[in-house]
Specification:
367 residues, 59% helix, single chain, 5-stranded parallel sheet, 16 helices, Rossmann fold, alpha/beta, elongated, Hypothetical protein af1432
């Protein structure tokens, strides 16, 4: 929707003659509002938002600069263009007003055409800025939708290679989202993250196994347990996935935060807290937080899922293993912090499985 500027002007001046003069100058183009003191102006702004403010630097109860300071501190009023009014020119006063955030400075004696033109210019600039903000927001939303679509396509490619992988991707992404949002809500210093990083982890979690597209079908679809050589090959999915993202960044000339987070997750979600994981053998906090979160989500789902070579474990059995391996496989502090939300994992698994697996899980819950 196109931004339409507010064509009301608030004139703040303690001189009644000046207020009447501005009323005469502006009334044919703008809705003119008035206040005779700083306090009256602030009271007016509590219930009204003008398109522009003409503010005298010398008010009966305070200076215009004091009013400007209040405006700049309140998010509701920060974006209203303010033009200072002064009877006499003072370079220091002008510089001070502009540094405080005023858009212009008008000196007496007042000339109608100059006032009208200055107001018109600043309202047009405000209109342009609002339209530009909307364009940027629209482009950003479009880019985000494009990124999400691409990530879904890439995740689906992995899912199509392996019937078991589709549900696994969906569930592990949900587990990761629960962990991330819990950490974000708590705001614990050691695990503090901004909203962008949190969102990047959530939307990139679905890519953690993308490297499996490079694993031969005879290994990926083997009905039994892998031998040592086959396991060595499937471990390469972390390197293959990282290479895919590296190639994408190189082709796009783009090192956007979400691609860097995607690479962390894809490449390092099999690292262990004690350094005995792969592919790099990283340990402790050398493992990115995104990968440590993904490790927990990935292992939990593997434990409670049935595979040709293993039975599915109950939620309680899976949690017993996760707690036993806290400090070896998993970040022990992280496990402790998120312990209260692990019950949500069981519900996610139950709701996001096919009919046969859901029935199996339901049986496990009542055992």
């Amino acid at each position: 929707m196109k931004y339409i500027p507010n064509l009301s002007v608030l004139v703040v001046d303690g001189n009644l003659d000046n207020l009447e003069m501005f009323q005469d100058i502006l009334r044919f183009r703008y809705n003119v509002l008035s206040a005779r003191s700083g306090e009256e102006a602030l009271e007016f702004l509590e219930v009204n938002t003008p398109g522009l403010i003409l503010l005298d630097i010398n008010l009966p109860d305070c200076s215009g600069y004091a009013v400007m300071e209040r405006l700049q501190k309140d998010p509701r009023w920060q974006e209203i263009p303010v033009i200072f009014l002064a009877e006499h020119y003072d370079r220091a006063d002008e510089a001070h007003g502009l540094m405080m955030g005023a858009v212009d400075y008008i000196l007496g004696p007042i000339i109608a055409n100059i006032v009208l033109r200055r107001i018109q210019i600043h309202l047009e600039l405000q209109n342009y800025r609002k339209n530009l903000e909307q364009m940027v927001e629209s482009k950003t939303n479009q880019l985000t939708r494009s990124q999400d679509t691409i990530l879904n396509i890439l995740a689906n490619i992995t899912a199509y290679r392996d019937d078991e992988t589709g549900g696994h991707i969906r569930r592990t992404t949900m587990y990761a989202e629960k962990i991330v949002n819990h950490l974000f809500k708590l705001g614990i210093h050691q695990y503090r993250m901004n909203r962008t990083y949190a969102d990047d982890i959530i939307k990139c979690a679905k890519l953690h196994d993308i490297g499996k597209v490079g694993i031969p079908d005879m290994i990926l679809h083997k009905p039994g347990k892998l031998n040592q050589d086959e396991y060595s090959i499937i471990k390469n999915h972390t390197k293959i996935g990282a290479m895919m993202i590296d190639n994408a960044m190189r082709e796009l000339g783009d090192d956007s935060s979400f691609l860097l987070v995607a690479r962390e997750i894809v490449f390092m979600h099999h690292e262990w807290w004690n350094g005995k994981g792969y592919p790099l053998g990283l340990a402790g906090e050398d493992i990115p937080l995104s990968a440590r979160i993904m490790t927990i989500a990935d292992v939990y789902d593997a434990l409670v899922s049935e595979r040709p070579y293993k039975r599915s474990l109950s939620h309680e059995e899976a949690m017993e293993i996760i707690h036993e391996e806290s400090g070896t496989h998993f970040d022990p502090t992280l496990v402790g912090i998120i312990d209260e939300i692990f019950m949500l994992f069981r519900d996610i698994f139950f709701r996001n499985n096919d009919e046969s697996d859901s029935a199996k899980m339901e049986n496990m819950l009542v055992m």
